Amino acid sequence: MADLARKRNDELARILHQLGWSPERLAREVNAVLPPGMAISSTAPYKWRDRGMVPRSPHDQTVCEVLGRCVGIAVTYEQLWGQMGSNRGAKMLSPRLLTDPWTADTAQTALREAGADGAPVRLTDLFRGDELEQAARHWASPPPPVTGGEGALRIAPEQLADLRLSYDSKQRLERAYGGGLILDLAKAELAMVGKLLELGSYDEPLGRELYGAASRLARLVGWANYDMGNDAAAQRAFVAALRAAHVSGDPRLGVGVVGCLAVQATYNSGGRGLDPVAMLSTALRAADDVLTPRERALQLGRIARAHGRKGEQISAEAVAERAFRVLEGLDGHDQERADLEGMIGEGFLLLGEHEQARGLLQRAIEALTAERARVKALLMVRLADSYRRTGERAEAEDIADRARRLAAGMQSARVARALRDFDSAMRAEA
Q1: pTM of the predicted model, to two decimals?
Q2: Are the CB atoms for 204 and 146 separated by under 8 Å?
Q3: Total tally of structural domains belonging to the chain
């Protein structure tokens, strides 16, 4: 165990107080789920709470899981331990993850790292914006040869079909219940696909499809990490997804990954100095002729929201209008239209345009189904915050309570953090 800054862990103290637990009770609950021989002492949680000490792996993550299960909402590593200034328990990003040649072999290396069951990655390991922009330009270059494919495991189209079904089911679970529910499963499946790429027997067309499946899984791992507040680990997975998309030769996959990086940079510390508008706009221009209307509208919505974050109202409105035109007159896109309304509503909220934001957010919330419960809960908190900011506290509290009920048990640090921030702002204004 590392004795760090010897400062009190206020977040751990707050959660223990909320649960009515003593440090000894926390020790008992943690020991109940640990394998034999890994038990902690009954006094260890005192050191975590009062002296800022951080437990080593796997105890650090186990504490998060135990507390999250009992609180009923995700408790993340960054939330609990990230402010303690840890210099241990964190896996360093490969310094060559962005700069190594963009080949099939280095894509496999990146995929293995993204699927590894390593310790959490520190926020200080985030890439710089210029590094990410340079990497994001690679996906549009001609794909490299598919090397390998001469292993003993024969890969058939049926295995690819199974991987697609598995990805679709995990994505549905993530959208409904949060990234924490599927993160470990998705990482394990990504590691398995990495083994198939390494040990499998496949020709070039099948190999490119296999890299495409790996890219989708790595993107899902990245998104689940982002949803759980693990920004640096999310970046690592997104870069792996970008490399695999490049080998697959499918530019639509590359644009989707760049879009995820843009979302992260819009709302979080991911990509220090990264301009999400410029990066995603460049990607969209490079692949606009191959994108489906749904894909094009999604990325335009992300660009409009990023303009809102930058305070660029005229640009936000212009891009939003383009995005809605893309879906105009198309049947069977109700959820995509609701997604778009939610993103544009968030953009107007960032601009302080509450009337426009509320109309869009309310329509999105009404249209989103139970399968999209995570984003629905998040948009409800955004709507509640709009009413709070204009002094309509009763309406704000009512909407936040509805969001809280919807999010009960949800494994999403983004939703949990949004609710905590809302509650803190309400208390500060009381």
Answers
A1: 0.79
A2: yes
A3: 4
Same domain (yes/no): 115, 77: no
Q: What is the pLDDT of residues 249-271, one digit of tens each?
A: 999 999 999 999 999 989 875 44
Q: Which two three-digit tokens encode residue 299?
A: 């990325």
**Residues 321 and 359 sit within 8 Å (Cβ to Cβ):** no
Average pLDDT over residues 26-31: 91
Q: Is residue 208 domain-resident?
A: yes
State how far Cα 15 lies from the chain centre.
24
Q: Which residue has the tokens 């809960």?
A: 377
Q: Are residues 256 and 114 in the same domain?
A: yes
61 with 115, same domain: the answer is: no
Q: Is 33 helix (H, G, I), strand (E, B) or coil?
A: helix
**Rg, C-alpha atoms of the chain:** 22
Answer whether residue 39 is part of any domain.
yes
274, part of any domain: no
Whether the Cβ atoms of residue 366 and residue 379 lie closer than 8 Å to each other: no
Nearest of 9, 175, 166, 197 to residue 86 by alpha carbon: 9
Given 59, 84, 109, the domain boundary residue is 84
> What pLDDT sits at residue 3?
38
Q: Is 424 exposed, middle or buried (0-12, 13-18, 19+ CB in 10 A)?
A: exposed
User: What ranges in 228-275 are assigned the alpha helix state H?
Assistant: 231-248, 251-267
Q: Long-range contact list for 286-291, CB < 8 A, 24+ apart?
A: 286/140, 286/251, 286/255, 287/140, 287/251, 287/252, 287/254, 287/255, 290/251, 290/252, 291/252, 291/255
- Return the residue matching tokens 């000894």: 24
Residues 256 and 236 both lie in one domain: yes
106 and 191 assigned to the same domain? yes
Question: In the numeric block, which tokens belong to residue 202?
Answer: 């496949």
